[in-house]
Amino acid sequence: MTSAGIPQEEAAAPAVTGSAATVLYVCADRGALMPSLAAQRAEEEGRSFAQQRGLTITEVVTDEYGEPDPCCREGWQRVRDLAGAGAVAAVLVRWPASIAPESAHEFRHRETRWLQEHGVRVRYTWAPLAATGGEAR
Questions:
Q1: Angle 71-72-77 (CA atoms, 0-180°, nearest 5)?
Q2: Are 33 and 63 in contact (CB under 8 A)?
């Protein structure tokens, strides 16, 4: 559990160093007044996180927020394809709910575990989580 009260997944993936290929996954709720603001902020935050840690974002994958099971989202399927092909070493997401909402946390745990089993690190870019390394555990 993080200091923000957000559960972290248990398994740890192998360490990745240097400018490892990284996918930035953005799944953000669209506000009524400024529909692209949340996605814009998530992408900026992810790029900053990657730059500070020497990671190379090779692709930005987006989904609309709403579907709780990430496997039912086209963008997340792309993330899985990249991971399964060994094309990326890390996936950056803003916070755990970007993968699956807390009400469907079992999907998030399943997907994080699957990525880690394929040697892909999952890292959270939101400042309170990033301050402790941003690593999903």
A1: 50
A2: no
CA distance 58 to 38: 21
| pTM exceeds 0.90 | no
Enter the tokens of residue 129: 């989580």
CA distance 43 to 129: 16
Six token digits for residue 26: 């953005």
Q: Within 10 A of 127 (CB to CB), how many other CB atoms are there?
A: 12
**Cβ(121)–Cβ(92) under 8 Å?**
no
pLDDT at residue number 15: 38
Q: Are 135 and 121 in contact (CB under 8 A)?
A: yes
The predicted structure's pLDDT at residue 33: 60
Residue type, 67: E
Rounded to whole angstroms, the Cα distance separating 83 from 19 reads 16
Q: Quick one: which of 7, 24, 33 has its CA closest to 92?
A: 24
Which residues is 60 bridged to in the sheet?
24
Which phi and psi (to 5°) does residue 10 adopt?
A: -85, -45
Q: Extract the tokens encoding 94.
A: 């803003």
